[in-house]
Amino acid sequence: MLPEISAALTALSGATKVISGILTTARDVETKTAISGILDSLLDAQSKLLAFHSKYEELAEVNRQLEQKIVEYKKWDADTARYKLQEIAKGIFVYVLQSDQSKGEPVHWLCPNCFEQHQKSILQKPGVDYLNYKCHRCQFDVIPTTQYRPGTSLGEDFDILTPEGY
Asked: In this structure, what are the phi and psi dihedrals at residue 93, rounded to the nearest 5 degrees?
């Protein structure tokens, strides 16, 4: 970007020198030659400024896209703070909407695979009588047959965990 500006300033400086030369020229032929030199310098300056403007527009677009990504990341961070990674059965983890962060939404589970890819995908039962929960985006399948809570013995009898159970 700076080389283009320097080139444009050099071209304009050349045009200024040519104009100064015209003032000292007395003959018609020399005047026409000087004017031709001015026009060449001005056209050169114009093309360099157009190139600079094009580069500026490209950088402005990149900047706009980066600002958009920052806004999306901030929104994602605010939204993800509402969820907590929870072990719902031995070795099975999901993201659970914290009840104090529900903002009117029912408590639900999110797929951990999709969550790590900045996608919210609610785990749902494929049918009414099914015990498993499935992510319809990535096909992650959860079958919480026994409840496991940290700090409890795995040998105890547990109820099946559901999103509503949190």
From this structure: -115, 145
